[in-house]
């Protein structure tokens, strides 16, 4: 399936997500190349997740796309082994560390409160509260929202705790952006309130030659909300000449 002319595509899911978040992308690109979606298990740092990705990648060199927390893992992969990443796509994500002071403590408290809800009421009930900000308001309680809840329900509070730990202790990737040398796509839903477009504009401006794409009529879950538009952006990215 994959070859030197069609190197693998490694697709990194975000917090509590699994291969379902990339279902349409795997359908679109899987006939031409191997598409792998790693599972982080209960790894509890972004560095450990990145090392896991590198250890299990289907080839020495590959294309790498990360959504949400997966985008942070992708940047860590690129920091650890830049020579292995042919192309990089960062989608609905962030790159800064935990904020100092009140803002950081507020994030910590909010995440731990969700974990408490997950333990006491179950993952799906936690998701009903947490995930309402994930999708465009027009899709609340529709099939995409239910699919997001299904993903969350497939995870456990133990996985949630590990991934929260990873995010609360996330590295600040700001210093590595100027050194990213492979073709890079920065993509965001126009209505993403979790990882707003303004942040992606700053991110794209900091990476030499990066391409910024805003996906219309989409919130945070762009790959599921607007798969056609996302797939077209990824197809153009995969046609960019990779670093040799």
From TrEMBL:
<dbReference type="Pfam" id="PF12697">
    <property type="entry name" value="Abhydrolase_6"/>
</dbReference>
<feature type="domain" description="AB hydrolase-1">
    <location>
        <begin position="10"/>
        <end position="233"/>
    </location>
</feature>
<dbReference type="InterPro" id="IPR029058">
    <property type="entry name" value="AB_hydrolase_fold"/>
</dbReference>
<dbReference type="InterPro" id="IPR000073">
    <property type="entry name" value="AB_hydrolase_1"/>
</dbReference>
<dbReference type="InterPro" id="IPR050228">
    <property type="entry name" value="Carboxylesterase_BioH"/>
</dbReference>
<protein>
    <submittedName>
        <fullName>Pimeloyl-ACP methyl ester carboxylesterase</fullName>
    </submittedName>
</protein>
């Amino acid at each position: 399936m994959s070859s030197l002319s069609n190197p693998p595509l490694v697709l990194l899911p975000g917090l509590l997500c699994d291969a379902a978040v990339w279902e349409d992308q795997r359908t679109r690109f899987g006939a031409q190349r191997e598409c792998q979606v790693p599972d982080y298990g209960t790894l509890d740092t972004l560095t450990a997740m990145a090392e896991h990705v590198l250890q299990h990648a289907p080839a020495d060199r590959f294309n790498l796309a990360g959504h949400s927390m997966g985008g942070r893992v992708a940047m860590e992969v690129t920091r650890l082994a830049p020579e292995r990443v042919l192309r990089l796509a960062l989608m609905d994500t962030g790159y800064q560390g935990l904020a100092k002071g009140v803002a950081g403590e507020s994030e910590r408290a909010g995440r731990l409160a969700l974990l408490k809800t997950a333990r006491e009421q179950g993952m799906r009930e936690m998701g009903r509260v947490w995930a309402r900000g994930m999708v465009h308001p027009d899709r609340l309680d529709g099939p995409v929202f239910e699919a997001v809840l299904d993903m969350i329900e497939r995870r456990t509070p133990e996985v949630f705790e590990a991934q929260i730990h990873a995010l609360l202790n996330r590295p600040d990737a700001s210093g590595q952006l100027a050194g990213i040398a492979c073709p890079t796509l920065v993509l965001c839903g126009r209505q993403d309130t979790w990882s707003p477009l303004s942040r992606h504009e700053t991110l794209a401006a900091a990476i030499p030659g990066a391409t910024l794409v805003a996906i219309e009529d989409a919130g945070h879950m762009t790959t599921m909300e607007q798969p056609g538009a996302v797939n077209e952006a990824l197809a153009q990215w995969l046609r960019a000449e990779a670093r040799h």
